[in-house]
Design a protein that fits this description.
About 55% of the residues lie in helices and about 15% in strands. The longest helix has about 45 residues. The chain is elongated and about 105 Å long.
Length: about 450
Amino acid sequence: MEFLLETIRLGLANLRLQMLRSILTALGIIFGVAAVIAMVGIGEGSTREALAQIERLGARNIIIRSQKPPEAQSQQGGGRRGFINRYGLSYNDLLVVEENFADAAHVVPLKEVGSEILRGELRKVSQAFGTTPEFISVARLRIERGRYLTDSDIAQQSLVCVIGSEIAEEFFRLEDPIGNRLRIDDKVLEVVGVLKPVGLSGGAGSALVGRDLNLDIHIPISTARAVFGDTVIRRTQGSFQGNEVQVAEIYLESPDRNRVIPDAQRLRRLMDHRHPGLTDLGMIVPYELLENARKRALTGQWISASIAAISLLVGGIGIMNIMLATVTERTREIGVRRALGATRKHIVAQFLVETGVLSAVGGLVGVALGLGLTIALDRVVPLLPEMPFIGSLFPADVSLPTAISPWAVIVAFLVAAATGLVFGIYPARKAARQDPIVALRHD
């Protein structure tokens, strides 16, 4: 024990004698560890945000939706002045799904209605859907003000609606939407609730569902069927195009996650039988997307960490280079120690202590720098649009989400410490193998 303490004391004393050289030698390790932690933190933050957006769609949900088939797309571009496209899910499809998945937690339909949303002089292309009270829990939505649709609304075919946060902002900028009215085409509806922002605009979730859920309007499905019918007409420049779709989407919530993939496969086969080729249907399985995204994220993190780890390798090479130079400079000192009774083991231990301290201290400083950089990026990047001179270079909603990954911190430090020791072995052995007599005669 006394030998170990004395060796550590000598190693630290030698490092202090060449403080500037020691600091410069440790920079490679410092920046390597900081780069690993920061890059993994950026990757982890972006991954968590993307996974959260996918998970908001409901990990147990299977979404099947009507989509315009290729032949209808070609008709739309063919210059016809007026036509009706009939495609997608039908009421019979909904009944078949309910019968074949009787043990499902929920089967919730969405029915698209209306061509325009209007209030005073404000108007917007309609993104209104008839649905049931269960949709708010299935789609992981939350009420900000007011209430959601109720069974009473369904039974009475009430002319009420629940609006998304963006609709509330655009149509009721200076007013409370609750109790106010807006129109969908020529039908007047009372606003009874406002949904909380779901954070999907422009993100992974928005791309998955094909629209910004903050612009949705929900009405009772009974009202949608009785008052609006099945045809949605879009008028443009003297012509019109109509889509006759009985059910726009069906949300099927499996009883548990283990059933999601089998249920999705069974639902796909069922719909393929009723809609050969599934040309007018699309299916979204968030759980599949979630698992695939996790695998891709893990691969991406390892790639990022591997790239950043090159800095650690460079730092280790720097340590070995400096220690080799130190061996040459301290040849006479080594000879004196050997002449006074120091063994080769003592010389190896002294040099390994010096490289170990360099790499360990560099690793600790690198960890602190990496953690600080990770936290700073998360907080500073959103402020860039407000900064003078450079603010105009960034979009208003710029962000760089980060997350500190404990495993990255631990692994980066351990690798840094190990790197110093591994690259210090050769200089230490070279120092220990020197002939004491030759070393004493060295100038």
